[in-house]
Amino acid sequence: MEALRNFVQHKGLPINITFLNHQKRDFDNKSFFEYGLEFSVKKERLESDKLFKSNILQETDNVVNLKLYIRNYIESMSNVHIKMRSILADSVDGSRIIFENAHKNFNAKHSIQTDYLEAISYENESITSKISLTLMHDNIRIQLQKRNGKLINLGKQYISGIAEK
Questions:
Q1: How much is the average pLDDT of 135-163?
Q2: Cβ(108)–Cβ(129) under 8 Å?
Q3: How far apart are CA 126 and CA 117, in angstroms?
Q4: Which stretch, 28-42, 122-136, 146-160, has highest mean pLDDT?
Q5: Cross-strand pairs, 37
Q6: Which residue spans within the chain are E strands per DSSP?
Q7: Could you give the CA distance from residue 75 to residue 152 in angstroms, rounded to a whole number?
Q8: HSE toward the beta carbon, residue 155, CA cutoff 13 A
Q9: Can you give the pTM of this predicted structure?
Q10: Eight-class DSSP state of 1
Q11: Mean pLDDT of 63-90
Q12: Alpha-carbon torsion (155, 156, 159, 160), positive or negative
């Protein structure tokens, strides 16, 4: 996929085979047409790029189903992402607790309710740096983490919409 990304960046889209397929499907005693789009690249198109890695070309089939490669690549990226979440979880959770405690202490001390705090560093009565202590971005991270789980068998799945005639 890295080699394909480089190809796209320097040479353009590698797709040189596309076809639309369709078939009749029956669902709930009704007939529907299901359409699909396939896109691939011939190995010779990739060979035309002298910068395309030769070791990758040796492993490449004569026709590459890009949809399958892309799905598998995205699934692999998902696995890396989930692993990184796991590695960083203790640090991220610990940081959130520190921020939450800063908010609780500040709000209790000043008898107010604020969601925005800043830590400010001074030197000789001048501000040298500021950092936001808001939880807004971390709340978004938590929502996204709940919504975006690990992708499994993405290369074996497809989306199909059935609509009435």
A1: 84
A2: no
A3: 19
A4: 122-136
A5: 20
A6: 17-27, 30-42, 63-65, 118-123, 126-132
A7: 7
A8: 12
A9: 0.68
A10: -
A11: 93
A12: positive
Residues linked to residue 33 through DSSP beta bridges, in sequence order:
24
**What is the separation of C-alpha 61 from the centre of its chain, rounded to a whole number of angstroms?**
27
The whole-angstrom distance between residue 110's C-alpha and the CA centroid of its chain comes to 41
Structure tokens at 98: 């520190």
3-state secondary structure of 129: strand
CA 135, CA 95: separation in Å to the nearest integer?
A: 10
Cα distance between residue 16 and residue 39, in whole Å: 8
The burial of 49, by beta-carbon neighbours within 10 Å (0-12 exposed, 13-18 middle, 19 or more buried), is given as middle
Question: Two tokens at 109?
Answer: 């001390």
Is the CB of residue 75 less than 8 Å from the CB of residue 151? yes
d(CA 95, CA 36): 47
Helices (H), the chain: 2-11, 43-47, 54-59, 66-110, 136-147
Here the tokens at position 161 are 């919409």
Q: Give the closest residue to 13 by CA, choosing from 41, 53, 55.
A: 41
Q: How confident is the model at residue 160 (pLDDT cuts 50, 70, 90)?
A: low
The string of pLDDT tens digits covering residues 6-26 is 888 888 888 988 888 888 988
